[in-house]
Design brief:
Number of domains: 1
Helix content: 40-55%
Distance between the termini: 25 Å
Number of helices: 8
Shape: globular
């Protein structure tokens, strides 16, 4: 691919960081990655910093071993192994987001399972798996995915799903494009809020497996519309 395409990809990665912060999915923490456009066994990710502050100059390359390739010797996030393991296990995935999205946390620590309550979140499917870090390292961890073993265990829990929750630690969302991953991350948070509200009123009626699949297919063709809205909100210019 051309250098112009790579520049566009990096620009979208920077924009994704800003959108996710602006929409309340990221705070001072969280990270998003994008598979390299020329080398599928590497990915782009920001150096270790707050997502809302990321610029194109802050993007570094990382390989599946977790080695950061940067002429300035900068470091990326401790939990880059999330991205290493999922990219390696899922050739179909082009972008990965890890956040501490606040409305998600209760669904990873209770018996209530996150399920699609509206058509915008059909990508959740019939079940959303929950990664239990204790199954890999017992009860003494700091909850972070800081090595290959934990990354691989998380990737196994994710399987072929679009979203997996991390007990007491947020979630991971994947997409076939960075715009799709951002869409899914935002609507995962939205679904969690709506589901919690509905559960206070009564027993929710969730999407069936077919409804979820068909809604996801339809919405995947409309992602440019919300992307442009979220992007315009960053600058305050509807034409941005």
């Amino acid at each position: 691919m051309s250098s112009n395409h790579a520049a566009t990809q990096i620009s979208d990665l920077v924009t994704a960081n800003h959108i996710l912060a602006n929409e309340g999915v990221f705070d001072g923490f969280g990270h998003v990655s994008l598979r390299h456009d020329q080398n599928p066994e590497r990915f782009w990710i920001a150096r270790s910093m707050a997502p809302s502050l990321v610029t194109a100059e802050d993007i570094v390359e990382c390989d599946f071993e977790g080695v950061v390739h940067d002429s300035q010797g900068r470091k990326s996030y401790l939990e880059r192994f999330i991205h290493c393991a999922i990219f390696k296990a899922r050739p179909d995935v082009m972008a990965i987001i890890h956040s501490h999205s606040p409305a998600i946390i209760p669904f990873g620590v209770t018996g209530a399972r996150l399920r699609p309550i509206c058509h915008m979140s059909g990508f959740l499917g019939s079940t959303t798996p929950v990664f239990e870090i204790r199954d890999t390292v017992g009860e003494t961890s700091d909850m972070l995915i800081r090595n290959h073993a934990l990354g691989e265990a998380l990737a196994q829990t994710l399987g072929g799903h679009a979203v997996a929750l991390l007990r007491g630690h947020g979630n991971v969302v994947v997409g076939h494009s960075i715009k799709q991953a951002v869409f899914r991350a935002i609507y995962t948070e939205s679904n969690a809020r709506l589901q919690a509200q509905a559960m206070q009123m009564g027993e929710p009626v969730f999407l069936s497996e077919d409804e979820a699949r068909n809604s996801d297919e339809t919405n995947s063709g409309q992602i440019e519309r919300p992307w442009q809205l979220w992007k315009s909100k960053l600058s305050g210019d509807p034409q941005a």
